[in-house]
Design a protein that fits this description.
With 462 residues, this protein is mainly α. It has 25 helices and no strands.
Length: 462
């Protein structure tokens, strides 16, 4: 298993980039409500005067699309502040996973209401979910242009502006156009000064522009607005480590790493009970090779946060890396007790148990790996672990199938790459094994639990 740096704080730090987008086309079995259809346009979508909206939803749920459309048109006729009828219909389609029909409804909206910005926002959101950044950028540009002149509903205009600026900033961040992203994030903040996620993303962008103090201030503001976000020191530490890993910053790598260390330590000293800080700092210590300090921090963390599955998981990883397999097994089992079906804990546990000479323990490894593969069938690492376990269980045909799936799914982490190398060695493909090991050992994207084993295997192949 390979953990990515500061996994918890980076998820929060980036705000999952797309969390600010509507993304209704991706909602599985979402409930269609008046709020979901007209909440951006009016403050009281459940009011009696919008009963036509409620009736349209009822008709739609009864498969009476024509009847639903009639009521949506009636509602729009009675209250022009509402979105176009076809756009509301498109939202219902998306919320019930009728994507093709939803796109057709959006196209009709764009044709019938050419000055309405929302079809372009929704189409851009759809493009982003499909990693079509160029299309999304053009659509957001069009939306922003129309928003500037839209004057039918100030509330709706503001909501659409927030979504468009947030969405376009996500594209620009992906393209590393930091200055343009900053402009859109500031435009978002101008519309919504209480948006913690906007300040959080602004902090990231400012760091990437080399404006560290301003970036830290943005993280501080984000934390003030949303106490669930990481400590500003943790967010800053994550950014310093990210900057250290940028090839262009190789001359300043040591300086950035030192700043990351200082920021993590300040975060830890400021609050030794905060789960995100404890997880992030422990993970960074393990990645940095300071296993003794990581052990001290995790021991205290287990007392401060006894129900944190992430702390138990990191404790298991550290125990495994320091040659304490019994402790590692205990911590992985505790992780699974706190987080049933946890993919990473199951993966690590299966790899650990299969090393045993005991038939019953090996059988348990197989059971764990098989269940994990059923729960995460499209994950490369899980399938490669299953392949290794089945290979050790002398179930070659099934092992080959799992191996093929794992390779096909692509992007295995460093520890899974080690499994690939070991399988290649068994096939006498030593040159290929060396190549994949060298690549894995260059990987600086996460904790490499079995790095020492990989280094030893590579040395034996020279």
């Amino acid at each position: 298993m390979a953990f990515s740096l500061g996994q918890p704080q980076l998820r929060l730090l980036c705000g999952a980039l797309f969390a600010s987008l509507l993304l209704i086309g991706q909602q599985a079995s979402a409930q269609v409500t008046p709020e979901s259809l007209i909440g951006d346009a009016v403050s009281d979508p459940d009011a009696a005067r919008y009963s036509d909206i409620a009736e349209a939803i009822k008709r739609y749920e009864n498969n009476d699309v024509l009847g639903a459309m009639n009521f949506l048109e009636s509602a729009k006729s009675a209250e022009d502040r509402l979105p176009p009828a076809n756009l509301m219909m498109a939202k219902m389609y998306f919320l019930t996973r009728q994507t093709a029909a939803g796109l057709q409804a959006l196209e009709r909206t764009a044709s019938e209401s050419p000055n309405d910005p929302e079809p372009y926002v929704l189409l851009a959101d759809q493009a982003m979910t499909q990693s079509q950044a160029v299309q999304a950028s053009a659509l957001y540009d069009k939306a922003v242009e129309l928003i500037k002149t839209y004057d039918k509903n100030p509330r709706r205009k503001r909501k659409l502006a927030i979504r468009a600026y947030a969405g376009r900033a996500a594209v620009l961040q992906r393209w590393q156009d930091w200055a343009a992203a900053e402009a859109d994030l500031n435009a978002w903040i101008a519309e919504d000064p209480e948006a913690a996620s906007a300040y959080n993303r602004l902090g990231l962008v400012l760091f990437m522009e080399g404006r560290e103090k301003e970036g830290y201030d943005a993280f501080t503001k984000a934390k003030e607005l949303n106490e669930k976000l990481p400590s500003p020191f943790v967010s800053a530490a994550a950014m310093y480590q990210r900057l250290a890993n940028v090839p262009e910053n190789s001359e300043n790598k040591a300086s950035y790493e030192s700043k990351a260390k200082q920021s993590f330590e300040r975060a830890y000293q400021a609050d030794k009970n905060d789960e995100t800080t404890l997880v992030s700092y422990s993970e960074w210590l393990i990645r940095s090779g300071d296993l003794a300090q990581a052990e001290k921090v995790l021991a205290a963390a287990r007392t401060a946060q006894p129900t944190s599955h992430q702390i138990q998981l990191l404790s298991g990883v550290l125990a495994e890396m320091t040659g304490k397999p019994a402790e590692a097994e205990k911590f992985y089992n505790q992780t699974l007790a706190l987080s049933p079906g946890n993919r990473d804990a199951s993966n690590q546990l299966a790899q650990l148990l299969i090393k045993s000479d005991d038939e019953e323990v090996q059988a348990r490894a197989e059971a764990v790996a098989r269940l994990n593969a059923r729960l995460n069938e499209n994950n490369s690492d899980v399938n490669l672990t299953l392949a290794w376990v089945l290979r050790k269980r002398n179930k070659g045909a099934e092992a080959n199938q799992a191996f093929t799936r794992g390779i096909r799914l692509g992007q295995p982490n460093a520890d899974s790459t080690l499994l690939i190398a070991k399988l290649l060695v068994e096939q006498e493909r030593k040159k290929d094994a060396r190549a994949v090991l060298e690549n894995a050992l260059k990987n600086d994207q996460g904790i490499f639990v079995h790095r020492a084993e990989a280094e030893a295997l590579l040395e034996s192949l020279k």
